[in-house]
TrEMBL record, chains A, B:
PANTHER family: HYDROXYMETHYLGLUTARYL-COA LYASE. The lineage of its organism: Bacteria, Pseudomonadati, Pseudomonadota, Alphaproteobacteria, Rhodobacterales. The keyword Lyase applies. The keyword DNA-binding does not apply. InterPro entries: Aldolase_TIM (IPR013785), HMGL (IPR043594), PYR_CT (IPR000891). This is Hydroxymethylglutaryl-CoA lyase. One of its GO terms (biological process) is L-leucine catabolic process.
Amino acid sequence: MIALCDVGPRDGLQTLPRIFSLDEKRHVVTELVAAGLRHIEAVSMVNPQRVPQMAGAEELLESLPDMPGVTLSALALNRKGVERALATRVDEIRFVVLASDSFSRRNQNMDSADSLAQFAAIAPIVKQAGRRIVGIIATAYGCPFEGEMSARRVAALADAMIAAGADQILFADTIGVAAPADILRVDRACRDVLDGVPWGVHLHNTRSTGYASLFAALERGATIVDAAIGGLGGCPFAPRATGNIATEDVHYMLDRQGVATGLDHDRLSALVAWLAERVPDQITGQLARAGWFPVRD
Amino acid sequence: MIALCDVGPRDGLQTLPRIFSLDEKRHVVTELVAAGLRHIEAVSMVNPQRVPQMAGAEELLESLPDMPGVTLSALALNRKGVERALATRVDEIRFVVLASDSFSRRNQNMDSADSLAQFAAIAPIVKQAGRRIVGIIATAYGCPFEGEMSARRVAALADAMIAAGADQILFADTIGVAAPADILRVDRACRDVLDGVPWGVHLHNTRSTGYASLFAALERGATIVDAAIGGLGGCPFAPRATGNIATEDVHYMLDRQGVATGLDHDRLSALVAWLAERVPDQITGQLARAGWFPVRD
């Protein structure tokens, strides 16, 4: 069973030139749920002065209706972000530790080791509060400043996060450089460390390799897949990072692979069309334009 | 060893809104060779009244310099096209038979069976002339009019083309619908039939699955890969068909997979930039914009 998490409301919107209103953000989340998504990364508990697109996280979460069966996630980069998330209704907190120290200092103002120490301190608190804690290892496949990342370093981070209580591990290709061989390389290094802990991938299609890497990850046993509606996305602190793999295109590929997702293509396409009216140049997903195949009656 | 064939001068240019001049076409071919390509599908021996972009095939071939070690290919859809190609310098003729009868009637004005009969008649003549004959099975993974194709039908076509003397078989995803599972499905059906005959794939990235399908094909032993510089491409008779997988993006993916191609990224990027000046909306390859990784000194 593949758990597809739409990170559009967070990763998708966080770098857009246009700031979405509370109503618009709510529309995105509720339409994703209406289209069948059961896991949404809805907010980032980041300083809105640094990422104005992510302001109003608490208000958005409060304004959402009850959505039975839907896991709502918040991204957090530090202890303060986790505390903010714990004061809301989110079911899951996704905490980012970067494999690259250079990137970590720019993105979260601390070294990787400090970030990991914060994770270790807060993970038990999140679990005690009855929420799921997910460890995201960002720049797992490469950093714009440091280049390729050591798979052993990534494995050491995964090991430490699992020891601290991470319920799941996500490997994030923050800047969209991974190819299938990179997925395999990191997976080989992490195999013993993961030891049954569910893991997944967060991929950007910056160099056209995102869907190939997804296929490779699924072949290696990944069960959590991040994607963003419309293929929106980027990273505020990564030069030239571009869109996530697109939810609607992942839906198509998984369908052809025989993987049931429960998603509704027409409903997803309608949401892509709605987004395209607002940020026409930012849509990188292709399904809404190309159409389903075979054409459904 | 992977043989990467750039089909940009043919598949890339054949649907562009702008018709390239002879000089421009020659620039594309010679720059591809300068960037390291050793196999170019340079022309289509199609009726220029049906596809005006492809007019002047003979003139283009005559105007090209000697290019030692480079295999020049011509596409042909019928006997007349093959005869035209044999009167030129091309090293290889790629003959298209469509798995879909409906598409075959629109694209080449005959049924699949008639097309196959023409192939069987001309293949020995091509070989006797000392040229390579390649059988392309188009719409191998799906047809816009008939939907999914039977893998057994595709295998029967491959079998007949090999019996007639095909030196290589290419499976073409003419309308960009294949996912890795489709590649595997067709490969399973064709495994016994191929029996050592080199085979490859011609993929369009219309639904974001092109590079994943390429990865799957390489894992199954494909050794011939079609791609088009800039990810240009389409099919004049296929609604909403879009670009081929892009040569420069395939180069990146293969490089990360540890597959040597001998290509020069900077030179490819320069050609993409040249194309982007002429057909800015048609570039679907991402590498020229995203940049190589890791950044090379």
